[in-house]
Amino acid sequence: MRAAGYLPEALMGHDLTRLSALTDDLLAGFQAAGAVRVEPPALLDAETLLDLYGEDIRTRAYTTHDPAEGERMLRPDFTVPVVEMHTAMGQEPARYCYAGPVWRRQEPGSDRPTEYRQVGYELFDRGDEAAADAEVFALIAAALHGRGLTVATGDMGVLRAAVSALDISERRRAALMRHIWRPARFRKLVERFAAPMAMTEARARLLDAAREGEGAVAALIKQAAPVQGVRARAEIIARAMALKEASEEPPLTAADRALLDQVTGLAGTVASAAGAVRAMARAHAGMDAAADRLTRRAAALAARGLDPATLPFAAQFGRTTLEYYDGFVFGFVDEARPDLPPIASGGRYDALTAALSGGAGIPAVGGIIRPEVLLAREGS
Amino acid sequence: MLKLGLPSKGRLQEDAIRWFERGNITIRRTGSGREYAGRVEGIDGVELVLLSAGEIPRELNAGRIHMGVTGQDLVHEKLPHWRRDLVELAEMGFGHADLIVAVPSSWVDVETMDDLDQVAAAFRATHGHRLRVATKYHALVRTFFRREGVADYRIVDSQGATEGTIKNATAEAIADITSSGETLRANHLKILRDGLILASQATLFLSQTAQWGAAERAALVQLCAQLGLTAPAPRD
């Protein structure tokens, strides 16, 4: 039998008792903060997850095949089913807590478990965003207090704000936003916008045709091959015209490039980050709202007894691993145990609730603790 | 006995038999041509196992054969742990096949994976579903597309006649094996400039999971000596 989780002995006996007690403690803490205990389903509609995360979700979630029900996936986390439950029957504002297993496919060669437990807290609230961020973070921090963990925080909203503030076309802005969670791809886009790449002969011919007009592009298509498939001639022509427009755009300015570098390099404390983003806002008016958010969050954290002057902050934190978070993000790790995943993580995911509801969605922030990991590092 | 797995029929088998010949190892089919049996001459302690080429990766992985001849494409696709469990003993110089990404030739605006990513975004906005890529190489394609930063696509399974899926409106792009590119051209498809996922050829693989006793090790050393290969030491 393969190790069932981060605490392989927790299937029975002493470790199971410890795990149950810890889970009960955490849930009791969340319920005392006003959360309703929920029991979301484990089998989720595969299409929903594929739409949200794309084809890559198949490398992370287990897919089941049922000729009658279609493809289902074992929940890779609780966020999606909790949002769906809330959308279907929740009152606002709402606080939920839950405990149970999630299932994750791991990379080849990885010895990380494919099944482990999470205990979590989710807050859906249209009111004070900073207060909601601070509430969730403070709850998780309190539950882990005194255990010698290292905390990290960040805010995906700062980079998003910077992209919004750039003096570029909406087309380029959309391209950057779309790849904001893929740092390598994002950097390639920035480089291309800063200095146009060398062009192939075929691309030069296409742009020449586009400058002549749609008729010339249509002729070029006709010369190439018969149009087949779902993507229509009109779509090919439209993209050719868009490529022509893109080729005429001025390169990304040095000031805009500098702003992106400043934001991706931004690291310090919650308090210093608020000051740094405020300074960026002097040159880029669009950054004001992000600076305001950081300032309000710092105050809300301070009101809960957490010192913004000592709480670490890095704008890049969570950019690759926590892909549906779009605002405040946080994590707790054991620096002495790099073999273990974060003990806890969480953040704001307004865009995810919007995507799931197909409309405006509801602002949401949440966090989870991995109780087996917490116990595994502490020994028996 | 060292069990050597060969494809049970076809061009791949003929080329493999010819390849072993150069080490004076003669593989003879026995019985009628339809019977899947044979023997190995010119070396002691090697037993022939004839298998469907597609099953050889699985048999190597399970350790039911010690060595086997099959395409790298099949091994890389089917065995995520192949680097740990198998050794590539020799690339055999035949069975060349490139796994590539192709789109309709009428897509004059698409030359690269980067173009495909941009088209995928626009396609999803226009049609309400993600751009479909037909392939049987799901794992290799997914890894490649992730590395290239392509989002908003989905894989649709295609076990054969993949070049026809676009015309049949069940896919917008394909990822498939090609050797000469003729089938692609006949179906009005073109390969993306940076769309080479894997350049595959027939390869002699060694299984690390098989039982390697003294007799099998001796046969391996002898076989490598005759073929001019460096004999690896299988793990215990």
Automatic annotation (TrEMBL), chain A:
Residues annotated as transmembrane: none
Q: Lineage of the source organism?
A: Bacteria, Pseudomonadati, Pseudomonadota, Alphaproteobacteria, Rhodobacterales
Which Gene Ontology BP annotations are present? Answer: histidyl-tRNA aminoacylation
UniProt keyword terms in alphabetical order = Glycosyltransferase, Transferase
Extract the InterPro entries matched here.
aa-tRNA-synth_II/BPL/LPL (IPR045864), HisRS-like_core (IPR041715), HisRS/HisZ (IPR004516)
Question: Which GO-annotated molecular functions does the record name?
Answer: glycosyltransferase activity; histidine-tRNA ligase activity
Spell out the protein name for this chain.
ATP phosphoribosyltransferase regulatory subunit
- Which Gene3D superfamilies does the record associate with it? Bira Bifunctional Protein, Domain 2
Automatic annotation (TrEMBL), chain B:
Tell whether Hydrolase is among the UniProt keywords: no
The reaction(s) annotated as catalysed by this protein in its Swiss-Prot or TrEMBL entry are: 1-(5-phospho-beta-D-ribosyl)-ATP + diphosphate = 5-phospho-alpha-D-ribose 1-diphosphate + ATP
Name the EC number(s): 2.4.2.17
Please name the Gene3D superfamilies in this protein's record: Periplasmic binding protein-like II
Q: Which InterPro entries match?
A: ATP_PRibTrfase_cat (IPR013820), ATP_PRibTrfase_HisG (IPR001348)
What NCBIfam families does the entry give?
hisG
Please report the name of this protein according to its UniProt entry: ATP phosphoribosyltransferase
